[in-house]
Structures are given as C-alpha cells and as structure tokens.
Design goal:
transmembrane transporter activity; membrane; two-stranded antiparallel sheet; MFS_dom; mainly alpha
Length: about 625
C-alpha cells in the first residue's frame, strides 16, 4: 500500500495544491497555543491589599478597624484586650501590569490561589480526556470533517468564554477547549503529513512545529498590547474566524479515503491535486487500481500481525488487557516504563518553564516571546543532530543539559535576573529539543503491532506532567522561589538517566512484532536491570500462572508469526487501521507473553541504511492522536 500511494504522491510533487494545505494547516496548528498558554496573562499572580469593612465601596472605613494584612483585618473589641481578626472579603489589586485578570475579577487569593493553577491545569485535563475521542473520530469519519467541526466548535466556545460571568463557567469552558485541542492540533498535523510526498515529510514534520513557536511569540506581543483578560481572549479567539474560509480549500486525505474504501472520492482528490500542481498521473483505470490495491494490502497487513483481540464482557477488563500488552515482556516493559517517565518529565518541565514568566522575569511579556523564540532553533536543528548522533544519545544529552541549567538557577544572586532568565531559556530550548526527539524516538522503539498504543499512551503521560506543572510553579513557587527549578532540574536529570536503559534505533530496522523486539540483543550493561524487570506482571492474568508461560516458550517462539519484512525509519507511511489485541479469555498465554529476558538466541541485523526522522507512523497503524 505504502509504496504505491507514496509513488503517486511523489509524482504529484510539492505544488500549489500541497502549499495551500500546508499554509492553512500551519495556521490551524498555531491557534491552540494561545489558550494553552493563557495562564500567565489571563490568571497571573497579582499583588493585592485587603479592603476591610462594608461590602459597599462608598462606605468609608470604620474608625474601629486597626492594622491589617492582605487576607485579614483586625477590629477593636471594647470587651477584649486583643483585637478580633476578621477574614478579608474585598481586595484592592495592583493594576500597574494588568488592567483586569481572572485573578482580580474572581478574587483568587487568600487560600484560593490553587484555582489559578487549576485554570491552566483543567485545560490539560481536557486535552487528555478528548484526545482518544479525537483519534476515533478522525479515523472513522475522516480528517477534514473532524478538523472542520472541531475548529467551528472551538471558535464558538472560545468566543463565548469571553463573556462568562462566573468562575465555574470559565473553568468548564477551559475544559471543553482542551477536549478539542487534539482535534485541531494533531488531526491537522496528520492531514498535512498525508498530503505530502515522502521526500518532504521529514522536513515538513519539523516545520509544522514552528507555527506553535511563532504563536507563542505572538501571544506575548498580544498580551503586552491588551491588558484586559476578556479583550485579550476575544482578540485571539477571533483568529479562528480567519481559518474557517480556508476549510473550503482543504481536501480529505487520499490515503484515508483509499483505506476506508472510498475509491472514487480518493481518485477525484488525486486528480484535483494533479490539476493544481500541473502534473500528469497514471491513467484513470490504473490510478483506481492502485487505490483498490492499497486497501487490500492494508487489510492483509492488519490480519497478519499475530495479535488477537481482547474479548471480555467487562469494559475495564478489556482496557486493562490492552494496557498490559505494553508490560508483558521484559524489553517492551523497559521501553514502556522508560517512555512513560520521559514523557511525564518533558511535559512537566516544558510547560512549567513556559508558565514561569512572572517567577523568573520582571517582564512576563518579553519572557513569553523569548520562550517561543528559543523553540525555533530547538526544532530546526533537531534533524541534523538526531541524524548524526542518534536518538538515544541526543535524548540523554538534552535532558541532562536542561537539568543542569535549571539546578543552577537557585544559585543566581538576586541582582542578576538576566542570568536567571538566560539559564531558564537555555533549559527551555533543551527540553523542547528533547520533546521533539521523543516524538520520533517513541515511534521507532515500539513494535508495529503496538506502536499506536505505545506512542499514544506515552504521549498522554506528557499531559499528566503538564497538568502538574501549574501547581508546581504556583503553589510550590509561592512558598519558595527556588523550589520549582529544583523540582524541574532533578526530574530532567532523572529522565536522562532513565533514557540510558533505552536502545538506540538510529541505524536499525523497526521491529514489526513484539517477538522481533524480544529477540534482539541486549547491551551487557543493562542486563541486571532487565533481569529485575523480567518477572511476570501478574500471577494469573494476563500472562497466566507464574512460570507457566516460560515453560511454553520454545513452542511459542516456533509458532509466533514473524513477518518477512521490516519497516525502516526512513519511511514510515500512514495507515489508519485499528490494531487487534490478544484475547483476555484465552486459556493459553499470548505468543509474546514470555521470552528469555537476557540471552537472546536470535538477533536481527541492523540495517545498513541511515535513519532519517520520519513524520508518519507505521503502515499498519493509526497515528498517535493524544
């Protein structure tokens, strides 16, 4: 499938049809960043002072009120020597930086500071909840309808949230925006990849991240010009209206149409692209045959992967069965847990540094612009670095370097704020590079038959990390200014150490099955760690009684389906077929349930080709949509 459709896309080249899609989708990808990074400007930390006495501002302060602090005031009581302390219910907020904010309008002070962190965190929660539904909708109903409906609903919710009267309704709107985040960002990214030729995919995969960096810089500039939170949110929400007309120019993904059996529609899209690009494609009957063959080969690939579906009457059992697949064998377990921790840390540190402008700099607007600026080299320089030095080593270096920069922050004197900002920005650039490398690295580490599940679940861990970052910066930072940088720095160092147990994928073929992954040789230095993690994860389910699966290993190794081909990292085409999973009720353990943890009896020779960062997942799986 991949070679035939990619051959047609190669014939199309990169012309006007492709550029229209790239431009529109790049603009689309940049839009969610404003609401994702809204916290520093819409709900910032603002200085305040208690206003004691009547709730009516026209009533002067009573003479019996004595000294006060920010959250309480004291009232003289003739019958007592000590004055009575009363909680403050009204405050005067400093408006020298911001005219109005969520903080000042809803009084998020004096024990309510956690709601400022929740304002940002609830958006990330929405992203984590909505991402799986986005993947289902994009695969079932198509990329273009998903982007269209998601963009329209996102624009409506964003515009409506500018006039909501209560904090509860504002938080609900933030959650809804988060659920639509992946609909715009991930589906737009996937569609751009699927309409591009194989030659430009690696470069395009990096270029499409630049609009996020540019949007971050624009967000800092817009916040500088508009200091009222409602008008600022309205201005960036109106940007969605400029994208809606571009939806009329977008076509559905020809690859998705071919896989889903919409042959005539796929043919029409390819012919339209040929007219726009002014190139000649094969005759109509030949092109239609290529499209039909693509669907047949994709279905055959789906049926021959050797995994059986989970069949259970309980939805929870089915979910656990699918999740435990990533933990059943020693090397896959190491990869899964390593990726989970790396993604957790990279999400926490990346968003933590992005949201720390009011803690690290006296000018949060300039800080936001600079954080977007440093992401440009982080994205553009990643391709040659990863190609020349591999995935594993660059991941380790980026994590360790970011950790060192952040751990130096507490030692910077108070009068050297520019030094602290410089260290934070260098750390942000390094962690942004690590984020990019992990996106590629995870897609190559997991075998084809579980690649979608592995990469999607791992990426979801980054959302868990991003949900915690506002509480680290706001709550821990309010008690001690150096605590967030220490937490982020130590976490980055630990992620670098954890990455050392992961294998290099730069010059090797991508594993198609878990069996292939387990049969590959293991570096001597990691054998003890693998032995520790080699035990069955359960005494009865999903791998059967402890030791029972191991006793069947020789027969299982001989009977497990092993494809005769291997995907290489230079070309990972897209195919939105649903993976199939092993049965939860099978009496026999799955064929990949137990393997020798260390001394592999077989090895797969490394490819002699040099890997290039690929923008698409494997041929027989869905793209990660989390």
């Amino acid at each position: 499938m991949a070679s035939q459709l990619d051959g047609v896309l190669s014939q199309l080249g990169t012309g006007k049809w492709n550029l229209v899609h790239f431009t529109a989708l790049a603009y689309c990808v940049s839009l969610p960043c404003y609401h994702t990074l809204a916290g520093p400007f819409l709900a910032p930390k603002v200085d305040y002072q208690c206003l004691p006495g009547s709730s009516d501002p026209s009533v002067p302060l009573a003479s019996h009120i004595t000294t006060q602090d920010s959250c309480s005031y004291y009232v003289k009581d003739p019958s007592r020597e000590e004055p009575l302390e009363r909680p403050c219910k009204r405050w005067s907020f400093d408006n020298s930086t911001f005219v109005s904010t969520v903080t000042s309008e809803f009084g998020l002070v004096c024990g309510m500071e956690y709601l400022r962190a929740a304002y940002t965190s609830i958006y990330m929660l929405g992203v984590m909840v909505g991402a799986p539904f986005n993947g289902f909708l994009a695969d079932k109903y198509g990329r273009r309808p998903t982007i269209t409906i998601g963009s329209v609903v996102y624009a409506v919710v964003a515009l409506a949230s500018c006039w909501l009267p209560s904090l509860v309704s504002v938080l609900i709107s933030r959650f809804l925006l988060g659920t639509l985040h992946a609909t715009i960002l991930k589906t737009g990214y996937i569609l751009a990849m699927e309409v591009s030729s194989p030659r430009v995919r690696p470069v395009l995969g990096i270029v499409l991240f630049l609009p996020w960096a540019l949007g971050t810089m624009a967000w800092g500039g817009a916040a500088y010009l508009l200091r009222s939170w409602r008008w600022l949110q309205l201005s960036v929400s109106l940007l969605f209206l400029f994208f809606l007309p571009a939806l009329l120019l977008l076509d559905e993904s020809p690859r998705w149409l071919a896989v889903r059996g919409y042959h005539t529609h796929a043919l029409a899209v390819l012919q339209r692209a040929a007219r726009w690009n002014r190139v000649a494609l094969p005759p109509r009957h030949r092109l239609l045959q290529i499209i039909k063959d693509s669907q047949d080969e994709g279905n055959a690939s789906s049926q021959g992967r050797g995994l059986r579906p989970c069949r259970s009457q309980s939805l929870l059992d089915t979910y656990l069965c699918q999740m435990f697949i990533l933990l059943r064998t020693p090397r896959l377990r190491v990869i899964t847990l390593g990726m989970f921790f790396d993604y957790l840390v990279v999400g926490m540190v990346y968003f933590g540094l992005s949201l720390s402008g009011d803690h690290l700099s006296s000018n949060p607007f300039l800080y936001m612009v600079l954080t977007g600026l440093v992401e440009v080299p982080a994205y553009t320089l990643m391709v040659p670095v990863v190609t020349n030095y591999g995935r594993r080593s660059t991941t380790i270096v980026f994590f360790l370097f970011s950790g060192v920069m952040l751990l130096l922050l507490p030692f910077i004197p108070n009068g050297c704020g520019w030094v602290a900002v410089t260290l934070a920005l260098v750390g942000k650039m390094s962690i942004s590079s690590a984020f990019q490398v992990l996106t590629l690295y995870s897609s190559e580490l997991f075998p084809t038959e579980v690649r979608t599940r592995g990469t999607s679940t791992a990426f979801m861990m980054s959302r868990v990390g991003s949900m915690t970052s506002p509480f680290i910066t706001e709550l821990l930072g309010s008690t001690s200014s150096w605590t967030p940088s220490v937490v982020f720095g130590v976490a980055s160092l630990l992620a670098g150490v954890v990455s050392m147990v992961l294998p290099e994928t730069g010059d090797t073929s991508l594993p198609d099955t878990i069996k292939q992954l387990e049969e590959r040789g293991t570096v001597e230095g990691y054998r003890k760690l693998l032995w520790v993690m080699a035990a069955d994860v359960s005494s009865g389910w999903p791998c059967g009684r402890r030791g029972e699966a191991a006793s069947r290993e020789p027969a299982l190794l001989n009977s497990t389906h092993l494809p005769t081909h291997s995907l290489h990292a230079t070309h990972i085409p897209f195919h939105p077929l649903h993976p199939v999973y092993p049965s939860a009720h099978s009496n026999d353990p799955p064929a990949y349930c137990s393997f020798e943890p260390i001394n592999s009896r077989h090895s797969i020779p490394a490819s002699t080709h040099t890997s290039t960062p690929s923008a698409l997942p494997a041929d027989d799986e869905k793209s990660p949509t989390v």
